[in-house]
Amino acid sequence: ESVRALTKWLQQRSRVPLLIGADMERGAGQQFAGATGLPPLAAIASLGDADLVRRAARLTAREARTLGVNWDYAPVCDLDVVPENPIVGTRSLGSDPAAVAKLAAEWVDACQSEGVLACAKHFPGHGRTTADSHAELPVVTASADTLHNADLAPFRATIDAGVASIMTAHVAYPALDPSGVPATLSREILEWLLRQRLR
Questions:
Q1: How confident is the model at residue 142 (pLDDT cuts 50, 70, 90)?
Q2: pTM, entire model
Q3: DSSP labels, 109-129
Q4: Which letter, b or e, does each residue of 86-110 get, where b requires 16 or more Cβ atoms within 10 Å of its Cβ?
Protein backbone atom coordinates (compact mmCIF):
# COMPACT_ATOMS: atom_id res chain seq x y z
CA GLU A 1 0.00 0.00 0.00
CA SER A 2 2.82 2.43 0.81
CA VAL A 3 4.49 1.84 -2.57
CA ARG A 4 1.22 2.30 -4.42
CA ALA A 5 0.51 5.51 -2.49
CA LEU A 6 4.00 6.86 -3.15
CA THR A 7 3.99 6.13 -6.89
CA LYS A 8 0.51 7.63 -7.23
CA TRP A 9 1.61 10.76 -5.33
CA LEU A 10 4.72 11.12 -7.54
CA GLN A 11 2.75 10.72 -10.78
CA GLN A 12 0.10 13.24 -9.67
CA ARG A 13 2.71 15.86 -8.88
CA SER A 14 4.76 15.42 -12.04
CA ARG A 15 4.13 17.53 -15.15
CA VAL A 16 5.20 14.55 -17.29
CA PRO A 17 4.47 10.83 -16.85
CA LEU A 18 7.24 9.24 -14.79
CA LEU A 19 9.12 6.04 -15.45
CA ILE A 20 9.32 4.15 -12.17
CA GLY A 21 11.49 1.08 -12.40
CA ALA A 22 12.75 -1.76 -10.25
CA ASP A 23 14.76 -4.96 -10.51
CA MET A 24 12.07 -7.62 -10.57
CA GLU A 25 13.87 -10.58 -12.12
CA ARG A 26 12.30 -12.80 -9.45
CA GLY A 27 8.89 -11.17 -9.44
CA ALA A 28 7.67 -8.01 -7.74
CA GLY A 29 8.25 -9.70 -4.38
CA GLN A 30 12.00 -9.43 -5.00
CA GLN A 31 11.71 -5.74 -4.05
CA PHE A 32 8.30 -5.22 -2.47
CA ALA A 33 6.97 -6.93 0.66
CA GLY A 34 3.54 -8.42 0.10
CA ALA A 35 4.07 -9.02 -3.63
CA THR A 36 4.80 -12.44 -5.14
CA GLY A 37 8.39 -13.65 -5.09
CA LEU A 38 9.41 -16.07 -7.82
CA PRO A 39 12.27 -18.56 -8.15
CA PRO A 40 15.37 -17.34 -10.01
CA LEU A 41 15.09 -17.27 -13.81
CA ALA A 42 17.45 -20.26 -14.05
CA ALA A 43 15.00 -22.42 -12.08
CA ILE A 44 12.03 -21.40 -14.22
CA ALA A 45 14.00 -21.85 -17.46
CA SER A 46 15.29 -25.27 -16.39
CA LEU A 47 11.74 -26.62 -16.67
CA GLY A 48 11.93 -26.14 -20.44
CA ASP A 49 8.47 -24.59 -20.73
CA ALA A 50 8.30 -21.19 -22.42
CA ASP A 51 4.74 -20.74 -21.15
CA LEU A 52 6.02 -20.76 -17.55
CA VAL A 53 8.40 -17.93 -18.41
CA ARG A 54 5.49 -16.03 -19.95
CA ARG A 55 3.33 -16.63 -16.86
CA ALA A 56 6.13 -15.42 -14.56
CA ALA A 57 6.57 -12.27 -16.64
CA ARG A 58 2.82 -11.59 -16.76
CA LEU A 59 2.45 -12.02 -13.00
CA THR A 60 5.43 -9.76 -12.36
CA ALA A 61 4.09 -7.08 -14.69
CA ARG A 62 0.56 -7.19 -13.29
CA GLU A 63 1.78 -6.81 -9.72
CA ALA A 64 4.25 -4.10 -10.75
CA ARG A 65 1.53 -2.14 -12.52
CA THR A 66 -0.70 -2.42 -9.43
CA LEU A 67 2.16 -0.95 -7.38
CA GLY A 68 2.63 1.88 -9.87
CA VAL A 69 5.92 0.50 -11.18
CA ASN A 70 5.94 0.66 -14.96
CA TRP A 71 9.47 -0.50 -15.81
CA ASP A 72 10.88 -3.94 -14.96
CA TYR A 73 14.67 -4.29 -15.19
CA ALA A 74 14.36 -7.82 -16.57
CA PRO A 75 15.03 -10.21 -18.20
CA VAL A 76 18.69 -11.08 -17.68
CA CYS A 77 19.94 -12.02 -21.16
CA ASP A 78 23.46 -12.96 -20.08
CA LEU A 79 24.60 -16.50 -20.79
CA ASP A 80 25.59 -18.59 -17.78
CA VAL A 81 28.85 -19.88 -19.28
CA VAL A 82 31.49 -19.23 -16.59
CA PRO A 83 30.88 -20.99 -13.26
CA GLU A 84 33.08 -18.47 -11.40
CA ASN A 85 30.94 -15.54 -12.57
CA PRO A 86 29.95 -13.53 -9.46
CA ILE A 87 27.13 -11.64 -11.19
CA VAL A 88 25.09 -13.95 -13.43
CA GLY A 89 24.60 -17.49 -12.10
CA THR A 90 20.96 -18.32 -11.35
CA ARG A 91 19.83 -14.93 -12.69
CA SER A 92 20.42 -16.28 -16.21
CA LEU A 93 17.94 -18.14 -18.37
CA GLY A 94 20.70 -20.63 -19.22
CA SER A 95 23.86 -21.23 -21.21
CA ASP A 96 22.48 -22.10 -24.65
CA PRO A 97 22.25 -18.92 -26.78
CA ALA A 98 19.21 -20.09 -28.78
CA ALA A 99 17.27 -21.22 -25.72
CA VAL A 100 18.06 -18.04 -23.78
CA ALA A 101 17.10 -15.95 -26.82
CA LYS A 102 13.72 -17.65 -27.09
CA LEU A 103 12.90 -17.37 -23.39
CA ALA A 104 14.11 -13.77 -23.09
CA ALA A 105 11.89 -12.78 -26.02
CA GLU A 106 8.95 -14.56 -24.36
CA TRP A 107 9.55 -12.60 -21.13
CA VAL A 108 9.69 -9.30 -23.02
CA ASP A 109 6.51 -9.98 -24.98
CA ALA A 110 4.53 -11.15 -21.94
CA CYS A 111 5.73 -8.34 -19.67
CA GLN A 112 5.10 -5.58 -22.19
CA SER A 113 1.71 -6.99 -23.17
CA GLU A 114 0.69 -6.20 -19.56
CA GLY A 115 1.70 -2.56 -19.94
CA VAL A 116 5.07 -2.68 -18.17
CA LEU A 117 8.32 -1.88 -19.99
CA ALA A 118 10.94 -4.64 -20.05
CA CYS A 119 14.72 -4.19 -19.96
CA ALA A 120 17.15 -6.67 -21.53
CA LYS A 121 20.41 -6.75 -19.60
CA HIS A 122 23.47 -6.60 -19.46
CA PHE A 123 24.42 -5.68 -23.03
CA PRO A 124 26.48 -7.05 -24.78
CA GLY A 125 26.66 -9.87 -22.23
CA HIS A 126 27.97 -10.25 -18.68
CA GLY A 127 28.19 -14.04 -18.75
CA ARG A 128 31.93 -14.37 -19.43
CA THR A 129 33.18 -12.27 -16.51
CA THR A 130 34.96 -13.49 -13.38
CA ALA A 131 35.07 -10.13 -11.58
CA ASP A 132 32.29 -8.18 -9.90
CA SER A 133 31.51 -5.16 -12.06
CA HIS A 134 30.18 -3.34 -9.00
CA ALA A 135 33.69 -3.35 -7.52
CA GLU A 136 36.09 -3.37 -10.50
CA LEU A 137 36.15 -3.28 -14.29
CA PRO A 138 35.89 -6.82 -15.68
CA VAL A 139 37.38 -7.52 -19.12
CA VAL A 140 35.84 -10.09 -21.46
CA THR A 141 38.54 -11.45 -23.75
CA ALA A 142 36.23 -13.50 -26.00
CA SER A 143 36.54 -13.02 -29.74
CA ALA A 144 34.17 -10.83 -31.70
CA ASP A 145 32.82 -13.97 -33.42
CA THR A 146 31.98 -15.59 -30.07
CA LEU A 147 30.31 -12.45 -28.81
CA HIS A 148 28.31 -11.93 -32.02
CA ASN A 149 27.29 -15.58 -32.44
CA ALA A 150 26.54 -16.44 -28.82
CA ASP A 151 26.34 -13.60 -26.30
CA LEU A 152 24.43 -11.19 -28.54
CA ALA A 153 21.80 -13.75 -29.62
CA PRO A 154 19.44 -13.09 -26.66
CA PHE A 155 19.71 -9.34 -27.16
CA ARG A 156 18.91 -9.64 -30.86
CA ALA A 157 15.84 -11.73 -29.94
CA THR A 158 14.60 -9.17 -27.41
CA ILE A 159 15.14 -6.35 -29.90
CA ASP A 160 13.11 -8.31 -32.45
CA ALA A 161 10.43 -8.75 -29.75
CA GLY A 162 10.29 -4.96 -29.31
CA VAL A 163 12.04 -4.63 -25.95
CA ALA A 164 11.55 -1.13 -24.55
CA SER A 165 15.03 -0.73 -23.08
CA ILE A 166 18.45 -2.28 -22.77
CA MET A 167 20.80 -2.01 -19.79
CA THR A 168 24.51 -2.01 -20.54
CA ALA A 169 27.21 -4.04 -18.83
CA HIS A 170 29.92 -2.03 -17.11
CA VAL A 171 32.45 -4.39 -18.65
CA ALA A 172 35.21 -3.92 -21.23
CA TYR A 173 35.15 -5.94 -24.48
CA PRO A 174 38.43 -5.37 -26.37
CA ALA A 175 37.19 -7.39 -29.35
CA LEU A 176 34.30 -4.95 -29.76
CA ASP A 177 36.06 -1.76 -28.63
CA PRO A 178 39.88 -1.85 -28.52
CA SER A 179 39.95 1.35 -26.43
CA GLY A 180 39.20 -0.72 -23.32
CA VAL A 181 36.37 1.48 -22.03
CA PRO A 182 33.35 -0.34 -20.56
CA ALA A 183 30.29 -0.89 -22.74
CA THR A 184 28.46 1.74 -20.68
CA LEU A 185 30.82 4.43 -22.05
CA SER A 186 31.72 2.91 -25.41
CA ARG A 187 30.73 4.73 -28.60
CA GLU A 188 31.69 1.61 -30.59
CA ILE A 189 29.40 -0.66 -28.59
CA LEU A 190 26.47 1.70 -27.96
CA GLU A 191 26.35 3.79 -31.13
CA TRP A 192 27.77 1.52 -33.79
CA LEU A 193 26.79 -1.95 -32.54
CA LEU A 194 23.59 -1.41 -30.54
CA ARG A 195 21.95 1.57 -32.20
CA GLN A 196 23.15 1.35 -35.78
CA ARG A 197 23.78 -2.34 -36.39
CA LEU A 198 21.16 -3.93 -34.12
CA ARG A 199 18.77 -1.01 -34.43
A1: very high
A2: 0.95
A3: HHHHHTT-EEEEEEET--TT-
A4: ebbbebbbbebbebbbbbbbbbbbb
